[in-house]
Structures are given as C-alpha cells and as structure tokens.
C-alpha cells in the first residue's frame, strides 16, 4: 500500500490515534493484514507499518542480505534494538489504535491530548508533532531537490 498526503489529528487521553479515513478506506485486510506495527524513531517520529509490509521487510533481513541465524554483531544489535521496540497493534472498531506510552515518550510526543500530523511516507505512516511539522515544512520542501540528487547518487554506486 502506498501512503501519501497528511492529516492533522489529536492523540486522545487514552493514547489512541484515529487512523485517517483516506488510509483506512484503501486498506484491504486480505492484503495488508489487520494490524499495524508501531516503531518509535529518533527525531520525534512514531512509524506505523501495515502488518503485511512490516513482516515482508523484516523477512528480507535488516542488513540487506538474506536473513541468518548467525548475524554479525552490528546486525544482531540492530535487530534486537528494532524488534524489541516494535509493537503489533490492532485497531478497534472505530479505526483507532492505542499507541504505546513508551513509544510516545521515546519520540518526545508526550501523552494524550497532543496535536499531531500523520504523514504518508511511502510504505509507512509517520506520526509527528504538528507544530514542529508546520514549522519545518517550508525547509523540507526547499531541500527536496538535494535529497533527490543525493538518493540518485547513492543508487548509482
């Protein structure tokens, strides 16, 4: 599933986030799974992957090579750090997910009542502080050409 666009929302007092309708309406349980994987990320971000996407990416291995029972220490550390923080979360009947308090704290998003923006980031959704997002949006837009050039240069290597 390709996630694009953004929506402004509020995390409620019970730490629940309403998945925006534009994403829920494109969701196919048979293809995307019935749950989300939630992963806190440095920089004030909580990443949300569809169940199918997260499991597919995880099965490919974090090092870019095939998965192994005997990874080198750096890969083993990355796997332990990433997968120990990832949580599988099923939405309720209203399409809300309960975000883990630890994830919100690690991302610096605090508790309930916080205004956030949910952005489409290709294969995932990202939950970010709304004020910070709005404050840096013009800078993000301005740096798009340099990010594209940098990405293309890395692909050519």
Major sheet details:
6 strands, antiparallel
Radius of gyration: 17 Å
Helix content: 40-55%
The CATH superfamily appears as Transcriptional regulator MraZ domain
Count of DSSP helices?
Answer: 6
Could you give the topology of this structure?
Elements: E1 6-10, E2 16-18, H1 21-24, H2 29-32, E3 36-41, E4 45-50, H3 51-59, H4 73-85, E5 87-89, E6 96-98, H5 101-106, E7 115-120, E8 125-129, H6 130-156
Antiparallel strand pairs: 1-7, 2-6, 3-4, 3-5, 4-8, 7-8
Please summarize what this structure is.
The protein has 157 residues and is α+β, with helices and mostly antiparallel strands.
Keywords:
157 residues; alpha+beta; Chemotaxis protein chec; two-stranded antiparallel sheet; 40% helix; 24% strand
What does it look like?
Helix content is 40%, strand content 24%. It is an alpha+beta fold and 157 residues long. The protein has one domain: Chemotaxis protein chec. The protein has a 6-stranded antiparallel beta sheet with strand order 1-7-8-4-3-5. The longest helix is centred in the last third of the chain and has 27 residues. The radius of gyration is 17 Å and the shape is globular. The relative contact order is 0.23.
């Amino acid at each position: 599933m390709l996630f694009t666009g953004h929506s402004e929302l509020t995390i409620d007092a019970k730490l629940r986030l309403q998945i925006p309708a534009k994403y829920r309406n494109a969701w196919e349980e048979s293809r995307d799974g019935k749950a989300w994987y939630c992963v806190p990320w440095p920089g004030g971000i909580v990443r949300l992957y569809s169940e199918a996407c997260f499991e597919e990416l995880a099965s490919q291995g974090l090092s870019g090579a095939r998965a192994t029972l005997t990874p080198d220490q750096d890969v083993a550390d990355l796997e332990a750090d990433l997968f120990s923080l990832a949580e599988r979360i099923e939405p309720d009947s209203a399409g809300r997910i309960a975000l883990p308090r630890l994830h919100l704290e690690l991302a610096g998003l605090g508790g309930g009542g916080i205004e956030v923006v949910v952005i489409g980031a290709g294969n995932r959704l990202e939950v970010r502080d709304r004020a910070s997002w709005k404050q840096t949006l013009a800078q993000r837009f301005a740096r798009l050409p340099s990010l594209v050039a940098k990405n293309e240069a890395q692909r050519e290597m």
